[in-house]
């Protein structure tokens, strides 16, 4: 078992590089299924376990996948005959595998994918994805843990209103509609930067998608798509995680090339707390104050405060002088990190979807276990300011979304290492263990 061991107290100082976004690259990997001709080369790919999992799903579907890890580039060739069925063994490893469904349905008129199931942070149904496919003319059947969509005569463009601006449903429907006959309009679409990145790739592949990044996306169907080149957008959540780590440690860090526009609500909330956040062409510079002011935050779909920054933000709120609140409106069960933080001396009460935190917290080092991806990052950040040693286990969650997190923090001055508890060895680089996990 691997653990991160951190000794708190060092302010973070320096510059940090941010990788390509997990939540952008996964649907882009799936989109390569749509290219019946040519290769698609995706660069700025983060070396994350989810990326390897998606590669394995695609390989199973008969897409040729060549990962040049040294250059963070993957080349996909989907020009051979593609299979329409993604089995449980692959889909169960990662919820986001559901986004292969739209491309398969578009290209083959059939997709059979194991139901992805819920996960720790909430129930996460896929009803909106399926309603969208049905509106495009597909027949949906669910049996034996699988969901099957069929449209033997192809999909037909239509108007679709999403009851909630679901990121995955918007991506799946957008991809399905690229090869449909006629025009599709998605109303109340998700507006996340990762949606825009996906639309850019689709357009480079020959699709006609306009309006991505707004609440109305219009897709004019085309008869076929081809390979292209694309560099993945920077990970705003990784950037935000380092912004919080810098602020809470009273540090001074430049998050290189970070796109301020993608992190607006976080920047504004941090400023409200008294953190100095400056935006420039070089990136976002964060300087933590001696005293943080309490603040109330509510998560919302983009451009609201991102749920994927919620656990990290609670660490900053717990450190503030006074009572802060966090209301989680996107996922119903995303406060599990709070229970672990109690062991580190956090004081709070949860009422429904809101947690009231009583700062300032005198964080104590403790042994804690990550319960999901962003919880893992939050616990490490708490460890950066805790007295003594904090040990964070369940790093398989962290590896889904952060590459060499401990190394990046160490380069900024944190006293941190990743160890293999069984044989006592120090892990220098995460990628070998991630690959091992994904075999
Ligand atoms: C790989 C990826 O990009 N993951 C992100 C994506 O997840 P994901 O695409 O799964 O998130 P959604 O936007 O779809 O989900 C948001 C909410 O809508 C609900 N819902 C969703 C679909 C559906 O058919 N029915 C339904 O009720 C979900 O249960 C959840 O409560 O967006 C989330 C919200 O920003 C982020 O936290 C995840 O990091
Ligand atoms: C919840 C997340 O991801 P996923 O949707 O892949 O579980 C996340 O990135 O914080």
UniProtKB/TrEMBL annotation:
Keyword Transmembrane helix: no
Pathway as given in its UniProt record: Cell wall biogenesis; peptidoglycan biosynthesis
GO biological process entries: cell division; cell wall organization; peptidoglycan biosynthetic process; regulation of cell shape; UDP-N-acetylgalactosamine biosynthetic process
One of the Pfam families matching this protein, by short name: EPSP_synthase
Reaction it catalyzes: phosphoenolpyruvate + UDP-N-acetyl-alpha-D-glucosamine = UDP-N-acetyl-3-O-(1-carboxyvinyl)-alpha-D-glucosamine + phosphate
Gene3D superfamilies per record: Enolpyruvate transferase domain
Domain Enolpyruvate transferase: residue ranges: 7-409
Localization in the cell: Cytoplasm
EC number from the UniProt entry: 2.5.1.7
CC annotations in GO: cytoplasm
Active site: 119
MF annotations from Gene Ontology: UDP-N-acetylglucosamine 1-carboxyvinyltransferase activity
Amino acids binding UDP-N-acetyl-alpha-D-glucosamine: 95, 124-128, 308, 330
Modified residues (2-(S-cysteinyl)pyruvic acid O-phosphothioketal): 119
Keyword Cytoplasm: yes
Family note: Belongs to the EPSP synthase family. MurA subfamily.
NCBIfam families attached to this UniProt entry: murA, PRK09369.1
Protein purpose: Cell wall formation. Adds enolpyruvyl to UDP-N-acetylglucosamine.
PANTHER family: UDP-N-ACETYLGLUCOSAMINE 1-CARBOXYVINYLTRANSFERASE (PTHR43783:SF1)
Name used for this protein in its record: UDP-N-acetylglucosamine 1-carboxyvinyltransferase
